[in-house]
Amino acid sequence: MSQTHTLQPSSIRFPVQPRLVPTVKAARYLHLTLREFMELLPALQDQGFPKACPITGNYDMVAIDSWLDRRSGLAGSGSGGQSSIDIARARLATLG
Question: How many domains does the chain have?
Fold first, then answer.
């Protein structure tokens, strides 16, 4: 015999931070109005700003954070940067 399980709501509640956000929230995240964001979007995308999801039309907040980190120098420079091995060798070389 098969048993039917009914899902019960969880008694534990916690906030969910969406990863994909609508255009207006992506604009607000950049401290822009929706109009300013739409006007600047082509220039932003020319600078590597992530495009919206083609299915939902929403923007990926992790991708936006990554783009901001790269622009501000907080993220590694990727393939053009030094590997951790190269950095360790350079530091060891300075020790004598």
Answer: 1
Q: Tokens 């700003």 belong to which residue?
A: 49
User: Which amino acid type is present at position 95?
Assistant: L
φ, ψ for residue 25, nearest 5 deg: -75, -35
Q: What is the pTM of this model?
A: 0.66
Per the structure, the complete domain to which residue 51 belongs is given by: 20-75
The answer as to whether 12 is a domain residue is no
Which residues have C-beta within 8 Å of that of residue 62, sequence separation ≥ 6?
A: 19
Could you list the mean pLDDT of each consecutive 10-residue stretch along the chain, which spans 96 residues? 69 88 98 98 97 98 96 72 70 73
In a domain, 83, yes or no: no
Instruction: Give yes or no for a contact between 71 and 47, defined as CB atoms under 8 angstroms apart.
Output: yes
